[in-house]
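User: My collaborator sent over this chain with a note saying "see what the structure looks like." That's all I know about it. Can you take a look?
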Amino acid sequence: MNDVTARLRWQCRRGMRELDQLLCGYLDERYREATAAEKAAFAALLELPDPELAGYFLGRIEPEDPVIARAVECILESR
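Assistant: Without extra context I'll predict from the sequence alone. Here is the result:
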């Protein structure tokens, strides 16, 4: 595991089991093959607060930023 992946894994640990599973699952299963733009979107997504992330993944909030919306979609598809 390189430094970038280790940092991302640390950021994926949110303390909410559902978020941890979604984010770590994407990191393990799809991140390696993701495009540079998808990797950047994932990193930006990890900067968001937990309540906002939970809202996106539970379908309670629709991301206004199309880049974040696509990242959420990719993560949900990877389940």
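A starting point for your reply to your collaborator: The chain has a mean pLDDT of 93.
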